[in-house]
Please model this.
Amino acid sequence: MAPLRFAIFGTGFWARFQLAAWRELEGVECVALYNRTRAKAEMLAREFGIPRVYDDPVALVDQEQLDFIDIITDVDTHSRFVQLAAQRRLPVICQKPMAPTLAEAERMVAVCRDAGAPFFIHENWRWHEPIRQLKRLLDAGQIGRPFRARIDMISGFPVFVNQPFLKDLEQFIITDMGSHTLDVARSLFGEASSLYCQTQRIHQDIKGEDVATIMLRMGNATSVVCQMAYAGNHLERERFPETLIFIEGERGSIELAPDYWIRVTTAGGTHAQRFPPPRYAWADPAYNLIHASIVPCNANLLSALRGAARAETTGQDNLKTVQLVFGAYESAHNDEAIHID
Ligand code: 89Y
Model:
């Protein structure tokens, strides 16, 4: 089977890991890079042996024979590049968060749908190895109906060092991290019917909120609390980027504990097993859990591009996560619970 040819738009911090992860898969080949600052694209192209580089996105799509585009640019440019792909009916993958507003995300999904261009979101958190295993155990009914859960991503990791733009976001932790935790919540428990959120800013030198607490009613009447913080404070157990999860069910409980331990407790006692992510030489050790999850996420999207499987994170599906993200801001702003349609 001929490899699928793709271009990457955006050659910032995340692009080299995305590229390396694509290289773990058979049947796919990056043929061109676009970046506003050409020199940055040239550097990455040299490192990975990518044949062509552009600083004009239109020239790239006009001159290359592509099967899809993978967008890894700043969130403000996502819509422009997704539309460019849709005009050519090119399948397109876009990094989370999809868009800076819900209205823009809705327009992006509509434009692709109307053009008949498949549209996917690169949302990798639900592909973290231990979260995947937790979902398998939950779906197997080991603890019965889950009635309550806690999903925590609480860290003092200096996220602004590698991603300084995060400091300038007026809406920070819920767009950056809530996009992930709320998507994980949906993948575990189903759709939300209501939510209530409170936010805080602890760092004084950033524009947005760095602490958020979101309580949701989801799926089969499960109460879910998502707690997030990048407050820069000191924690005895710094586990970035691990997401810790505790689920109470009618017949037992499951915990995703530090260091990738999953502990299932039922009438028969507690069974504990460790599910670490695979180690990749190209991954930044501080981000290995996330970087390793790019591989199965890309594999799922590649199967969908080939028509061989259903993509979990289509644009249409991810709109529901985006709705929760902006619903959380609305709730925090008005200090009111909101209902989700
Ligand atoms: O940007 C974020 C992401 O998607 O994963 C972790 C991160 O790099 C910082 O929160």
Summary: Residues 159, 163, 176-177, 241, 290 surround 89Y (CB under 6 Å).
